[in-house]
Automatic annotation (TrEMBL), chain A:
This is Distal membrane-arm assembly complex protein 2. Required for the assembly of the mitochondrial NADH:ubiquinone oxidoreductase complex (complex I). Involved in the assembly of the distal region of complex I. Gene3D superfamilies: Ribonuclease Inhibitor. Belongs to the ATP synthase subunit s family.
From TrEMBL, chain B:
Required for the assembly of the mitochondrial membrane respiratory chain NADH dehydrogenase (Complex I). Involved in mid-late stages of complex I assembly. InterPro entries: FAD-dep_OxRdtase (IPR006076), FAD/NAD-bd_sf (IPR036188). Keywords: Oxidoreductase. The gene is FOXRED1. This is FAD-dependent oxidoreductase domain-containing protein 1.
């Protein structure tokens, strides 16, 4: 079955000071022990006081609305400068990097600031987007899908990219050649099934997906699904229980453990 | 004092200890002197416990240190009794009535499947002010062993011919995508409905191709494919006899209905909806003779009480109610008859029955190692046979709707395996040649709440029994429209009219006036 996900807990950002950056993300997802101590105090109080319960619900809702806010579309930029610049601005604002055709990578610096030189590049298509670790979600993909000549998309370790987002990628089918989903905690094999629309895909990275139930078998099935694509993923033997005492009972197909 | 404590600690002292708290335990109910502490019983880590009652009239029941395992059972019983006596507990001095529904409830929802729970959820979500309405859900089968929801194949699509169906389905997909925002319960893990966004592929023969082109409606992301394109995309399909195919690219797929049901149940319980395990056996109603604007006399009925019979017992509880929602699924016709709908000369509004009946449908699970790969959508053949992938292990689910003549007897949920051999396998093998070698692993049967009039749902109040609302009759696509229909019924109950999606063509009165809202894409 799918790996258990971290519960919708308020505590991690409140007690651990936010999830800015990649280190922060792992703090949210991984350590159960650290979370449990802080969590039980807040839960204890929330079970007994209505005010603490309301405060906790309010903070949870604020967290959710923060992600929504980050993913809002920049319609005024779109109207003024065109979809390529709007998409680039969106990614840069989230903390990712963008490469226009024939240019170098544009990245925000340590404090999140970036130069606005690219505003002149209205007719230059965006070729590569590196949105690793960004809080991009289903709504935020609107800005990305307008980039019709996108060739390379990196969505490594994005916490809010899930199966629904993958089903939205089909408008990029004619141009997308490289896609990386390594480390996304919410992507499962069900979302990977709708990557078959991307017939131009040449490189696909699906390594280290915790929500995929059988990584080895999934990789084989994805390779069969996309014959002209190089799939980087788990080793095919991962997830299989092999050993002299353990014979697979069903010889019709590989049975994952 | 210290010496006495030590004596008691060392040997199991007599019951004569002074009052006081003890480390490791806590005091029942409110602590005196510390206002505002909503105390609750904390299970002590050690086996030693002290507690006292708050009622000064009784003898103070104190118990000293207990260490014995043989006394723990009795102690917990005494603890429970005392806790129930104190304010906040549900102590009834005469007998235990916790299994009975309340004596009165504003809304009684008959049927606790996905539609009934969805109505309950939206009623609680849209009510103003919060906590204004008491909702009771009556479900006679708490294991859901025969409910259509959990036996369903779980698909959701927007490829319908009726525009309202498309809108209902679009909102439901939205609901499922943001299910953890809608159905979030604090401190419980998030829901994973295991949605497969693989889409639906509807194939049409020459005859159906024209209808299919017309059916591509606003809002549905569907692409029409010729047989050539179909062969390129899905090489395992045999396109003989297929003139056109419509493939849903987004917002279509299948999911786990049990998870949705449990998520709704959990959320709805946290919002304060009451559940009762029983069966509705009688409606007590009153009638008023009224005159319409044209002078015609009409008998308007109003349901006052719902008699809920408790499972495996002759006992029943009359529940006074203001509104009854009929969400009983395949059994809605029987519930409607209890309310007197259809008692009258045929051809009149009084004589129009609710045309929802049970229809049995089979679903088969088979294994085919050379079958279609991971990209397989939910395929629907022109002959009515359908199949979809299940999991990663080359297993497939599928079935076929029988024709009117071959309808199986809906008295039980036994599976007819000959039906698979005769009616399901040949068209499957013809459409997907790899399915010529397959092995059926298991099968089950479930009920459709089949609307014999036009196979579309009934939503909204009855024109004569003015406080009965329907949310039933969806003939196999109820699960995929449940969130939106629940919202529509809640709007009708709370506001009196549909606010977001206009479902006035789905009202009961169409059965009398004969206006069919025929849905062509029914599987």
């Amino acid at each position: 079955m799918a790996a258990p996900k971290a519960s919708l807990h308020l505590v991690a950002p409140v007690w651990n000071g936010g999830t800015r950056g990649i280190g922060g993300l792992s703090r949210v997802v991984a350590p159960e022990g650290n979370q449990k101590k802080g969590r039980s105090l807040l839960q204890f109080l929330a079970d007994r006081f209505y005010d603490v319960e309301a405060l906790r619900d309010h903070l949870l809702r604020k967290q959710v609305s923060k992600v929504h806010q980050k993913n809002r579309p920049f319609n005024h930029i779109n109207q003024r400068y065109g979809p390529y610049v709007a998409g680039a601005y969106f990614i840069l604002k989230q903390g990712g990097a963008v490469r226009f055709q024939g240019r170098e990578w544009i990245r925000p610096n340590q404090r999140g600031h970036f130069s606005l030189d690219f505003l002149k590049l209205q007719a230059v298509p965006v070729e590569a987007v590196d949105a690793s670790g960004c809080a991009i979600n289903y709504q935020g993909l609107d800005s990305l899908l307008a980039l019709k000549e996108l060739q390379s998309l990196w969505l490594q370790r994005c916490p809010h990219v899930d199966d629904w987002c993958l089903s939205r990628l089909h408008p990029l089918a004619s141009s997308l050649q490289e896609l990386s989903l390594a480390g996304c905690p919410r992507v499962s094999e069900r979302g990977l099934a709708c990557l078959h629309h991307l017939w131009n895909l040449r490189r696909l990275d699906i390594s280290d997906l915790p929500a995929v139930s059988s990584p080895g078998l999934t990789r084989i099935l994805v390779e069969e699904m996309l014959p002209s694509c190089e799939v980087l993923g788990a080793d095919w033997a991962q997830g299989l229980k092999l050993g002299p005492e353990e014979q697979p009972r069903d010889t019709a197909g590989p049975t994952p453990a | 004092m210290l010496r006495r404590t030590l004596l008691l600690g060392l040997c199991r002292g007599p019951l004569g200890r002074g009052l006081g708290t003890h480390r490791g335990g806590s005091i029942l109910g409110k602590v005196e002197g510390r206002g505002g502490y909503r105390g609750s019983w904390m299970a002590p880590s050690s086996s030693s416990v002290t507690f006292r009652t708050q009622d000064p009239a009784h003898d103070v029941k104190t118990v000293g240190r207990l260490g014995g395992g043989d006394r723990d059972g009795k102690m917990s019983e005494i603890k429970k009794k005392i806790q129930s006596i104190l304010p906040g507990g549900d102590w009834n001095p005469l007998y235990d009535t916790s299994y009975l529904p309340p004596e009165g409830s504003d809304v009684v929802i008959v049927g606790g499947g996905v539609l009934g729970l969805s109505v309950a959820y939206w009623l609680k979500k849209l009510e103003k002010p919060r906590g204004a309405i008491r909702v009771l859900v009556v479900e006679r089968d708490h294991t859901y062993s025969r409910a259509s929801t959990v036996l369903s194949v779980g698909g959701i699509r927007q490829q319908f011919s009726v525009p309202e169906n498309v809108q209902l389905s679009l909102f439901s997909v939205d609901f499922l995508r943001n299910i953890n925002e809608y159905l979030a319960v604090a401190d419980d893990p998030p829901l994973d409905i295991q949605f497969n966004p693989s889409g639906y592929l509807l194939l049409a023969s020459e005859k159906g191709a024209a209808i299919m082109e017309n059916n591509v409606k606003e809002g549905a992301k569907v692409c029409l494919m010729s047989p050539e394109q179909l062969r390129n995309k899905f090489p395992w399909i045999n396109t003989e006899g297929v003139a056109l195919a419509s493939y849903g690219m987004e917002h279509e797929g299948w999911f786990d209905p049990w998870c949705l049901l449990q998520g709704l149940r959990r959320k709805v319980q946290s919002m304060g909806v009451l559940f009762c395990r029983g069966e509705v056996t009688r409606f007590v109603s009153s009638s008023n003779l009224m005159k319409t604007a044209s002078g015609e006399e009409v008998n308007l009925k109003r349901i006052h009480e719902v008699h809920v019979k408790i499972d495996q017992s002759l006992e029943y509880q009359p529940v006074e109610c203001a509104i009854v929602v009929n969400a009983a699924g395949a059994w809605s016709g029987q519930v409607a008859e209890l309310a007197g709908i259809g008692n009258g000369p045929p051809g009149t509004l009084q004589g129009t029955k609710l045309p929802v009946e049970l229809r049995k449908r089979y679903v088969y699970l088979w294994h085919c190692p050379q079958g279609p790969g991971l990209e397989t959508p939910f395929v629907i053949d022109p002959s009515g046979t359908y199949f979809r992938r299940e999991g990663l292990g080359h297993n497939y689910l599928g079935g076929c709707s029988p024709t009117e003549e071959e309808e199986p007897d809906p008295g039980n949920l036994e599976v007819d395996h000959d039906f698979f051999q005769d009616r399901v396998w040949p068209p499957l093998a013809q459409r997907v040649p790899a399915f010529e070698t397959l092995k059926v692993r298991s099968a089950w049967a479930g009920y459709y709440d089949y609307n014999t009039f036009d196979q579309n749902g009934v939503v909204g109040p009855h024109p004569l029994v003015i406080n009965m609302y329907f949310a039933t009759g969806f003939s196999g696509h109820g699960l995929q429209q449940a969130p939106a229909v629940g919202r529509a019924v809640a709007e009708m109950v709370l506001e009196g009219h549909f606010q977001t999606i206009n479902l006035s063509s789905f009202l009961f009165s169409r059965f009398y006036s004969g206006e069919k809202v025929q849905e062509h894409n029914i599987i």
